[in-house]
Amino acid sequence: MNSLLKKCIAECLGTFVLVFVACGVAIITGDIVATALAFGLVIVAMAYSIGNISGCHINPAVSFACAMDKRMSWKEFACYTCAQVVGGFLGAVLLFGILKMCGVDVPTGGSNFIIGGEYDVLKVIASILVEVVLTFIFVFVILFTTKKDSKVSNIAGIIIGLTLTLVHLIGINLTGTSVNPARSLATALGNAIFYQDLTALSQVWIFLVAPIGGAALAALVFALLHKEKTETKETTTEE
Question: What is the pTM of this model?
Fold first, then answer.
């Protein structure tokens, strides 16, 4: 099987699991800690199952940062993103379909929402800032723990999973915590298809743009710090 195809299948499967399980916990329990742990544990589980195949991005923002850092080509980024969107959509269709059949009510907006729930300019800006900052933190940790000379590469999956748990703990009551465009688009579509609720879909642009912005910022800061570290190491060696 083609290498890129295998990677895309892995990304599709990983994103499917993320949306179905973690978003399912968020909607069914409504519990902050349970939801945060669900997202973190899914990342850990997927990192140690598909990580050696695709790197376990399961998030367009992560793939975007990796492309910026030249860890993958832009062609691979496009393929990864398509696979992640498809996987997320399939996970959302199955999740929301089951919830609908079981008569479970889904909160307005699903698991994406603007701070305060109102389309106010200041709240939109605040929501964007939250998503940019949280994505920055998440992607920044990913870039450093998975770099070639990382001393924690063997436990990177655990560290990344705990970081996702951390950002969810602060972000859930603010924006629902996206930091993942594929996840947000999937739940917005699922809510629209099965519950005819277009709230999340009308606001989903925030959760597409802001995480990519946060990922880009993380890649830039990583490049700056890593470059300085490399230059320092080279200077020391010459001396």
Answer: 0.92
